[in-house]
Specification:
Length: about 230
């Protein structure tokens, strides 16, 4: 029986769901052993099968040998297992908002996620968002702004929580593709890319292997906009 959590993720430069699976451990100081596989590689299916009979990452094996095969399941489990770590806000109003935001992110923003894959190795110049992507961005501006007004920031529900974990890859997309959002939303994006654990994740991604050509785009490259 494992004595700690075991987490399988894929390319840290590209796998947005892996980032959502890893951040709850890293940001809230929960010990975990991490294994990394590569997307679009012959070993991917084998590596996943060693954890669970699934086809996606992240996958977590708990200390009790239970399996968590969805990022939202990982989040709920850790919030229940470590109630003193602050993964969810303590106040009932803020907690309800956090749960709602997490659920909407997990199920929604399909246009944005489809048109703008997470890519932490470059920025792109000249990306033109579709009407559907713009609608997703407008929704982000609305729900983020409402959360900031209700809870005072700097994060969605006051202190950093699982709600922010789930929107971290969205923030990186706004940065990578220079997407049009409000000044307040842009400040939230900057806070994400400057978060110490995100910076750690991004640097580790360069050790996973070469760039994945499938994520290349017919656009001019620029540096990924990391704060100094």
């Amino acid at each position: 029986m494992p004595m700690t959590y075991e987490l399988l993720i894929a390319d840290r430069s590209y796998s947005s769901w892996s980032l959502r699976g890893w951040l709850p451990f890293a940001a809230f100081d929960i010990p975990v052993e991490v294994s990394v596989t590569r997307l679009y590689d012959d070993r991917f299916a084998h590596d996943v099968s060693t954890f669970a009979p699934g086809r996606t990452v992240p996958v977590v094996r708990t200390p009790e040998s239970g399996l968590l095969t969805e990022s939202i399941a990982i989040a709920w489990h850790l919030a229940e297992a470590f109630p003193d770590r602050g993964l969810l806000p303590a106040g009932p109003v803020a907690r309800a908002r956090a749960l709602s935001l997490i659920s909407e992110m997990h199920a929604g923003f399909v246009a944005l996620r489809g048109a703008c894959p997470m890519n932490l190795r470059t920025g792109w110049v000249g990306f033109q968002p579709s009407d559907e992507v713009r609608a997703d961005l407008a929704r982000l501006d609305l729900i983020w702004g409402d959360a900031f007004e209700a809870h005072g920031g700097p994060w969605l529900c006051g202190a950093y929580s699982l709600a922010d974990v789930f929107f971290a890859p969205v923030a990186t997309r706004i940065a990578t593709y220079d997407l049009p959002v409000s000044e307040r939303a842009q400040a939230y994006v900057t806070a994400h890319v400057n978060h110490p654990k995100f910076r750690e994740w991004r640097e580790a991604g360069f050790t996973d292997g070469p760039e994945q050509p499938i994520y290349d785009m017919d656009l001019q490259r620029r540096a990924f906009p990391m704060p100094g």
